[in-house]
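Fold sample X.
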Amino acid sequence: AGAIIPAGTAIATVSDISRIKLDFTIPETQLSMIRQGMPIKAVSAAWPDRPFNGTIATIDPVIDPATRAIRVRAILPNGDKALKPGMLLTVSVFARERESLAVPELAVVGDGEDRFVFVLEDRTAKRVKVDTGMRQNGQVEILGGVKAGQKVVTEGVVKLTDGTKVRLAGDKAKDGASRAAG
């Protein structure tokens, strides 16, 4: 017994998944940092401890006006067929590597288009305008405004104003509770 199938009906799909095409988007503000041929790393929830390395193959010439993002395609070798079409992957693009200052994202305060951090000078918080760069793993690159070695307030910045006196973590309270009994 068999079935009669009308002409033009697909009865099978053949897929070559030895190389996976991975499409993702990046914000237009990051466009200057990527180039065709740059390395990328992708991680899947199915294989969280196994990174899949590939390279950027194409960068779309048009920015999506709704999202202000651009579509990028990378090619990932998939010799053991671990990756399947349709899988969700988290992508890291390895842009120019450089050493720079960075602070935790929570230390940076926004005010309109400007960004600020609070630096400590003689236990007083001073609001300093900074130029920020890339963000990665909870850190923000600082391109200007503070220097290496300056102490930056990393917690409680939303409660601070310029000139606020600050008690450092680990300082003893000055309420007499730590006086020795005599």
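Fold sample Y, listed below.
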Amino acid sequence: MGDWSFLGRLLENAQEHSTVIGKVWLTVLFIFRILVLGAAAEEVWGDEQSDFNCNTQQPGCENVCYDEAFPISHIRFWVLQIIFVSTPTLIYLGHVLHIVRMEEKRREREEELRKPPIRDEHGKIRIRGALLRTYIFNIIFKTLFEVGFILGQYFLYGFHLRPLYKCGRWPCPNTVDCFISRPTEKTIFIIFMLVVACVSLVLNLLEIYHLGWKKVKQGVSNEFAPDGESLLLGADEPGDAETIPEQNCPTVLDCLPAYASVRVVAGGAMLILNNILNCYD
């Protein structure tokens, strides 16, 4: 099902080029989504289909009723959600790496020219130009994906599992009663995942507010410098660009709060997520 540890390493690298709120968003993704999903998935949802029982002996009726009740497994739905909301961040990281490489080539060609300062007077790296536009679009698309998956979950399942599901789908001879195992426990888990998704959504909105609507308007216009100056070149005036704290530490782990050991969490989370998918193959 793919190398999830590779995804974890990419998201970990994205921490170095994110704002403080962006770092918190990635921590929420790793701890409260991937790890919790892995910890509870097998125990809560392992019997999802095997214990879905209907009071009929009609061949095929139970299978079609299960398909009607659960068009897609909750686990697979949440895994898809994690993949989709992570993709904009990975695209942003790819843009960062591209700009860094372009800047290195430009320096080699123009060593004799005077360069604007890389950092501001506070020692912070500036995000500006095309990189700022990419970062803004990254947040916008993450927000849209979060809203889309929340609405999708609502229209597919709702946010509450009823113990009894009535099904009249062919080839059932009539309307039959089907029973879902541990509906209360699963409902609690569904609500928890919904709350975490809403927290991620709020963090995205706060980050847009943090960047400022003025910067959003500037970011989608053509008033900024070209790509080569986006990441490492300083802004000409204060307020021209969003800044990120300087990373004066050997690893990303050392730059994060004590509660957010991202390298350990990301590696373990991706391993757990891979095991989840293997269990449901």
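Sample Y note: Residues 74-109 form the longest helix (36 residues).
Also: Residues 227-241, 243-266 have pLDDT under 50 and may be disordered.
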